[in-house]
Amino acid sequence: xxxxxxxxxxxxxATKQIxxxxxxxxxxxxxxxxxxxxxKLEQFGTEYGVPKTxxxxxxxxxxxxxxxxxDAVYIILPNSMHAEYSIRAARAGKHVMCEKPMAIxxxxxxxxxxxxxxxxxxxxxxxxxxFEPHNQLAIELARGGHVGPTRIITAEHGFPIQxxxxxxxxxxxGGGSLMDIGIYSLNAVRYLTGEEPVDVMAIESxxxxxxxxxxxxxxxxxxxxxxxxxxxxxxxxxSSAHNxxxxxxxxxxxxxxxxxxxxxxxxxxxxxxxxxxxxxxxSPKTQFAGQLDHLAQAVLNGTPVIVPGEEGLADLRVxxxxxxxxxxxxxxxxxx
Length: 336
Ligand code: NAD
Prior knowledge:
By secondary structure, the chain is of the alpha/beta class.
């Protein structure tokens, strides 16, 4: 029997990326759907063969506790709803996969971790790049000192955001570009170093006259210092198009551009003056299917997940420090 997920929130990412990806899974399947829109439940229920008994609204959500076909719940809702539904899922006795950002505050992340722990269930965050071969190779090369010990990392993520969506409404998003896309720069420098930053410094640039940015930030640029002496310069933006990182060591660099797209990654390495294309052939298994199967296998085998709630919490700790640094106009020290 395959591991069954209940998909919570039938929006763009759920219906265009995650649900189609189950076709490439070896261990996981869609077993239930949760939506506030009956027409979507009907449409996607029919398309994915989910019977009416396995379709829920937000009001009937807690009844998932009585459905043994649901092993885990995958939360793909606006950011401020992640904590509530993750905690309700854990209380219903289910494992949880939750989209990034894990939640909108450190306190919420801690409550989610506590709820899953009390229930004796796993909590994993949807950091899909950790299941993508170029990013896996970059981690191996960077941490393995392929271009010498890492000294500097630059990471940039941004896109020009369209008006009229929950991402621009702070009560639902928890913040602007940093919560949504800049988190990829932050998460990448953390996985490329395997370290937690100790010093944070940030500046924000937001045109508050732009109707998109009434409640959330546009650009926020931040510097991180890591215990080994590595420094990272990271860009997060809702008004410019980039998706890249570069790991610079004493003998060269590892360059990924685009670094964290859905597909089409490209990688080059410069070592001792020679540039090599390290772009890999397309992988038979997508990063989405890899992520979905990972939780299934971790539960079946009783092994830990590589991106548990603690990883989401670690990002939120730094995000809160970045916002504080930008607000107060000074560096912020994080507890080692
Ligand atoms: P979306 O707006 O397309 O979908 C959100 C869904 O939540 C919609 O179906 C909407 O109906 C539902 N919803 C329920 N209550 C709502 C409310 N009060 N207000 C607004 N919508 C409500 O958004 P999305 O792009 O699918 O993003 C959903 C989550 O997935 C976010 O946390 C986002 O950060 C994450 N995401 C992750 C990736 C990734 O690559 N890992 C990509 C896109 C989105």
